[in-house]
Amino acid sequence: MTLRWGIVSAGKICHDFVNGFNSYPDVGDQVIAAVAARDKSRAAEFAKLHNIPKVFGSYQELAQSKDIDIAYIGVLNPDHYNITKLFLENGKHVLCEKPLCLNLKQAQSLINIAKQKKLFLMEAVWSRFSPVYLRLEEEIKAGKIGEVKHVDVNFGVPIVAVDRLRKKELGGSAILDIGIYTLQFAQFIFKDEPKKVTAVGNLNELEVDIIDTVVLEYEGGRRAVINIDSTVKLWNKATVVGTKGRMTIEDPFHFPEVLIHVDGTVEKIPLHTSNITFFFENSAGLVFQTLEVVAITFAGLLESPRMPHKESLLLAKLEDTVRKQVGVHYDVDDEEYP
After folding, report:
1. Which residues of the chain fall below pLDDT 50?
2. Where does residue 205 rank: exposed (0-12), middle (13-18), buried (19+ CB within 10 A)?
3. Where in the chain is the domain with CATH 3.40.50.720?
4. Would strands 258-260 and 245-249 be described as parallel, antiparallel, or unpaired?
5. For residue 149, what pLDDT is reported?
6. What are the start and end residues of each CATH 3.30.360.10 domain in the chain?
7. Listing from the earlier edge strand, what are the strands of the sheet with 148-156?
8. What's the CATH fold of domain 131-270?
9. In whole angstroms, what is the distance from residue 158 CA to residue 156 CA?
């Protein structure tokens, strides 16, 4: 059986998702079957560019369609909860862009619905499926750096003027937009929940965080220090330090091509290319999560072992904690969810 994807929105991240998928040499038994946008003309234009057979002028129509099995949701953060809920309630599996939701309560609600409906749901933390990440994981498990004691990771890009980051009503937040990459990397390495989280940040005039520094403290004196900055370009690398040395994932660490080993050896795992331009850096790598999804759903599993529900819940909890400490509050934080 072929897994049929429906693309929810015709924006930039959806463009890159489909472009990465279509330009990959072998995606297995899965296809992009349909796309929906609130403006059907935009969906039609998107479909023409990417050779997608079905076009819908509303998310409701796509959710109710029998032409898809799974939805890739690439809308803005405040819409993640309601639109993911819509597709789950219509019997569709879902891969939703990160952050899964604006807060922990929303994330838990979606996971509850997915479990009740016996449907697959995953937060699209695509970094977890990077070949470089998998290679780093192999080296750590093999004991190449000894006992891991420290993680240092930075993500800074000058996007402070972009509406999706700066406006609270659009789910604006540096920790939710780019900071999630740093949080997930620390969790990818340490696995455990931090015993203490300390965050400081700078807010804009709309009370949205634009710069954050976070220290995550784990049992056994282990620590992660992360810097997030939407005002400047940082050296966006991630370093893991152990008792036998260090390994570094080079910029861009969020989906890299270069790993520096303990002995200084540089290993490069290049991504595939496309004749169509990508909007975001190394977006060809978005396809690797679909390879995971198709394997998991065909195996009858409802969550990914590499990006399970408990990990999304922990990330949401950490994001809530950072926002609270730096002073960012959304109206939905006061609401309750089933």
Report:
1. none
2. exposed
3. 1-124+272-308+319-338
4. antiparallel
5. 98
6. 131-270
7. 196-203, 209-217, 223-229, 148-156, 238-242, 245-249, 258-260, 266-268
8. Dihydrodipicolinate Reductase; domain 2 (3.30.360)
9. 7
Contact 7, 17 (CB under 8 A): yes
- CA-to-CA separations, 189 to 156, 163, 185, 234, 307, in angstroms, rounded: 20, 32, 6, 21, 13
What confidence score (pLDDT) does residue 1 get? Answer: 85
Is residue 120 a contact partner of residue 94, using CB atoms and an 8 Å limit? yes
Distance CA 262, CA 88 (A): 45
The pLDDT of residue 143 = 97
CATH class of the 1-124+272-308+319-338 domain in this structure:
alpha beta
What is this structure's pTM?
A: 0.96
User: Distance of CA 328 to CAs 106, 173, 181, 228, Å?
Assistant: 17, 8, 19, 15
Q: Which residues pair with 70 in a beta bridge?
A: 5, 93
Q: From residue 209, how far is each of 84, 105, 247, 282 by CA, in Å?
A: 25, 20, 30, 26
Beta strands at 238-242 and 223-229: parallel, antiparallel or unpaired: unpaired
